[in-house]
Amino acid sequence: MTSKRKFTKSISSLALISAAFGCLAEQSNPAISVEGFAKHAMFSAIKTSPKGDYLAATYPYEDHKRLAIIDTKTKKITCQFFFRSDESVASFWWANDERVVMSISKQLGQYSQPFGTGELFAGNADCSKREQLFGARNNDMGAAQVEDLLLTDRDNILISSALEKRSYSNLYKLNIYTGKKVLVERATHENASIVLDNNKQWRVSQSYKTERQGLLKSEASGEMVTYYRQTPDSEWKEISIVDMSRESAQGTTAIVGFNATSDKMYLLSNVEQSQKGLYEYDLATGTQKLVYKNDVVDAQPFFNRYFDANGNQISEVVGALVHEGKPKVVFFDEDSAFAKEFRALEASFPQDAVFITSSTADNNTWILTTASDVNPGEFYSYDRVNKKIAYVASSKPWIDKAKMSHKEPVSFKARDGLTIHGYLTVPRGKDAKELPLIVHPHGGPHGPRDYWFYDDEVQVYASAGYAVLQVDFRGSGGYGREFEDSGFGQWGKEMQDDLTDATLWAIDKGIANKDKICISGASYGGYASLMAVVKEPDLYKCAIGYVGVYDLPLMFEKGNVAERLGWGKRYMEQAFGGSEEEMKKASPAYNADKIKAGVFLVHGGRDEQAHYDNAIVMRKALQKVGKEPKWLWKETEAHGFYDEDNREELFNDMLSFLKQYLN
After folding, report:
1. Which of 68, 150, 495, 564: disulfide with 568, CB 3.0–4.6 Å?
2. CA distance readout (Å), 457 to 25, 35, 231, 603
3. 3-state class (DSSP) for residue 241
4. Are the beta carbons of 59 and 17 closer than 8 angstroms?
5. At residue 503, what are phi and psi to the nearest 5 degrees?
6. How far apart are CA 109 and CA 522, in angstroms?
7. Where are the strands (E) in 155-298, listed by range?
8. What is the separation, in whole angstroms, between the first and last Cα of the chain?
């Protein structure tokens, strides 16, 4: 194995993981400290091998994630896989009964977007026959993506890669023991995805065209063209062409899967209506019909994945997952056998959302994940023959669900009549009356949204006695195309007004003590927190800006958003809106003199997303007007603190700062 990757068995941390799987069921933790909230999850994903002999689980180690293989009979670790200190096991797949395939990624900071290296590795469950399948060692250019595991073919999987020609991803058969690649089919469309049906045939492509006739490449907004064909020998036909420019607001269409027999496929689209709905497309007739949509939030596909009599894995779209307040699954056919069995599982976990993460090849054992507002994640094994559920592990066994605070969906009307949704967390054991309140805007802002699930930072605040209000202000994702588009050009304007209106709503309802309110957020949430105390200097007692953006013009000169050629600066022009002078009016750093509240600035010296100069500029602006902010700077952190010690220090400093202004 090449020295470029540390890809081997580690003895040093075996005891930790062995204890986790062998003893977690017996563990208890009477008290949750800030240290507990700062710790990373012990396990982030667990999958069973096809015969059920092994489990594979990703877990954190220092600044990265590793993969452990556990023998299900002995509960002992047989192998661990890991790479460089800044590289994590990102995705992993059991390609046969003994062999696991892995991709790796890099991530700098809690809120940084991880990026895959495009490399693939494989190894046996006993750590033998370790091999880099795709990447620099094999002189491969470009990146690889796993398209299908071909579980009836023990030695091969299907991958896609622009290996031969840039922007054209071909389909290859890849030997998982030798790394040998055999071309299956060349791409005919530029920047096209590969969508295989349940017969492992390339049936659909979505091609992103970056140029349009009459426009320069730098000016072209791009079009997404969806193609399909009846058979591998048929001609490609266009299903749809969608202008992807933000100005058009035409919506998007994505292929999300097929039915079991692959004669119908499912589209997720918000072209005909604002919210993303699921459409069934008949490949024989070329007709489509809407099968599900929600009037408030976007739908997501929900799958039934199982193995047929020949050992092929079938992935069938059977319903929708909907995050309207608390998550719920809607089946196309509630009377189907799968729907009834899944509903029985849900009844076994009435307080949690349930997900099936993997299955044995005989379909007799499922690995389940459960999660909720107070449950950061638990793993179970479900014996479908004997109808028995067995506990496997917890992602954070030190978190006592009974001591966490519940999160409830809320909604209110903004000043212009628009309905805004969000979540309210009330400290455990307290009534929602006259409480000190933390308004907690999310990052993004365009696309992300808040969800009902467990959140460390929210629980830190609630554990100290503060109510927490999370607001899906206009511009947030998940509530339809029009809702998200309505936030463009509204930084510091209507998006900010939604947070003000949320705060006033909490006061009016008697939830919040009007004299004890602070605002705290990360990334865009950091921007919104500082802008809140600029626009409403008497409403908030303090603001915490965590890896925030405070100087909008600066973002065009510094950071990796500006460096994303073409769309990066165009995105910011659309998001921020207005001239440079107008952007300065919407920048906290140019309005420090308006701030009365206490300010806590938190940033990392390696942050290239909300470039670290934002914090430096904001601090100097406050100092210039005689308002020294509280300051926490970690030179080695990026867009969000990842190191557990740094996270613990951050949470303790946050609570100390809040106590100063709210108690």
Report:
1. 564
2. 26, 12, 51, 16
3. strand
4. yes
5. -65, -45
6. 12
7. 156-165, 168-175, 181-185, 195-196, 202-209, 223-228, 237-243, 253-258, 264-269, 277-282, 287-292
8. 58
The rounded distance, in Å, linking the Cα atoms of 472 and 248 is: 23
Q: Where is average pLDDT lowest: 32-41, 152-161, 388-397, 469-478?
A: 32-41
Please say if the pLDDT value at position 30 is more than 50: no
Using CA atoms, how far apart are residues 340 and 322, in angstroms rounded to an integer? 18
Higher local confidence (pLDDT), 245 or 498 = 498
d(CA 512, CA 503): 8
At 597, the pLDDT band (50, 70, 90 cuts) reads: very high
Single-letter amino acid, residue 573: E
Residue 605's Cβ-side half-sphere holds a number of Cα atoms within 13 Å equal to 6
Segment 455-471, tens digit of pLDDT: 999 999 999 999 999 99
What pTM does this model have?
0.91
| pLDDT value for 249 | 66
- Contact criterion met (CB below 8 Å) for 78 and 59: no
pLDDT at position 561: 83
Amino acid occupying residue 595: I
Tell me the residue type at 533: V
The C-alpha atoms of residue 21 and residue 390 are separated, in whole angstroms, by: 12
Q: For the chain, give the percent of residues with pLDDT over 90.
A: 77
Count other Cβ atoms within 10 Å, centred on residue 47.
Answer: 18
Tokens of 298: 């976007």
Distance CA 359, CA 381 (A): 10
Output the CA–CA distances (angstroms, integers) from residue 464 to 429, 458, 467, 515, in the order listed: 12, 10, 9, 17
Over 70: is that where the pLDDT of 368 sits?
Answer: yes
β-partners of residue 192 are: 207
Point out the least confidently predicted range of 83-87, 296-300, 491-495. 83-87
Cis peptide, bond prior to residue 448, ω within 30 of zero: no
Query: In this structure, is the dihedral angle defined by the CA atoms of residues 181, 184, 186 and 189, taken in order, positive or negative?
Result: negative
DSSP letter (8 states) at residue 586:
T
Cα distance between residue 306 and residue 312, in whole Å: 8
Token digits for 125?
A: 């469950």
The phi, psi pair for 537, rounded to 5°, reads -65, -20
Alpha carbon separation from 377 to 258, 434, 580 (Å, rounded) = 29, 32, 45
Cα(326)–Cα(568) distance, integer angstroms: 34
Contact 110, 650 (CB under 8 A): no
Task: Report the run of H or E that residue 88 belongs to, with start and end.
Answer: strand 87-94
At residue 31, does pLDDT exceed 60? no
